[in-house]
Amino acid sequence: MSVGKVTFLGLGAMGSRMAANLIAADFRLSVWNRSAGGSQGIAALGAHVANTPREAAEAADIVISMVTNDKASSEVWGNKETGALGGMTAGAIAIESSTVTPEWIEQLAKLSGERGIQLLDAPVSGSLPQAESRQLVVMVGGEKAVYDKAEPVLSAVGSPHYIGGSGHGIIMKLAVNALLGVQIGAFAELLVFVQKNGLDVQRVFDVLATMPVASPTAAGVARLMLNKDFAPRFTNDLIAKDFTYFSDLAKRSGSTVPVSDAAREVFEKALSAGMGAENVSAIIRMYTQQSS
What we know:
Rossmann fold; N-(1-d-carboxylethyl)-l-norvaline Dehydrogenase, domain 2; 6-stranded parallel β-sheet; 3-stranded mixed β-sheet; 9 strands
């Protein structure tokens, strides 16, 4: 499949960087964003800015969505008047890179299939630096033949990995984010624990960060905790949403996930404390407040 036009829907912090990398890879790009102001930077790089997802998706070979949740994804793809599916032609590929539920992916696959459109779920792992430097890990579910067609486009935003059938990419992403949330919660409580027991917390972190038990991403968040840097990158609102999706899927599949449930409660308490729009690093305040 020779890819001509690519469409990108959703130009938030992650999406805008992914879209910029598609332009850098010489793909002809059409974009749409809910707020017009978010499109200005991409327009300056040469993207065509459309008024609706449907308009953006017209004549596109591949359409990628990067929005916040099931509701936003449903609106972007399925709105009867403005949805992207209405503008796509049979044989085109729809790629949902948002962190949504497997149930919605199943519905979206059905809606896409009715129009002869092929769907991949391709959520990404990584934060803003990885999105900017094309180092995102892309976890892809769907038909292998469709993945092979889309692989050059996915490679322009990161490192794609074929996981399995439809929905398998998003299931893996929910597992990855649960693991990340558990690690972030553990770092927060351990940093406060060692400080309360008289250790130099910076010195402890410097050693912990070199150990195999500390993932680079979780250690990076812990560094933000120590610097009291809570500026939004990956917010508590978003990880709490992902934990909810993960927990709901665990219940439906009969999985027992007590460690993840405990971490989810920490982030839910952070939301109740008004930290939803802050970065996940802000949860250390949950422990400092409790320990003071």
